[in-house]
Amino acid sequence: MSYCSYQAFKILAKNYLDIESHDVLFPIIQKLLGETNMTPADVAESLMSKSLTDDYETCFKTLIQSLEIAKKIAEDEAKKNAEKDQMKAEKDRQELAQEDEKV
Hints:
Mean pLDDT: 90
Radius of gyration: 21 Å
Number of helices: 4
Low-confidence stretches: none
Distance between the termini: 49 Å
Strand content: under 5%
Order of helices and strands: HHHH
């Protein structure tokens, strides 16, 4: 599965919203895309207007919110996996110590 790069985001923003740049929001999106794995389909979904009153800034802010949530989920999963690995390593050390005591 491929993830959305900043260049791909710019193409999607141009195609969906006819926007080529935004001095404030594009740098934020660029940073978050570098830190977070999100598919181009998910990015495109965030860029699509949910109502007639949504403007392009609303769409970009929705994308930023989605990226921040995805980043938080990834960080939580990484922390959980690290704790799990640490517990397994500790269990393995205890089992080795018990085997050494038997010998």
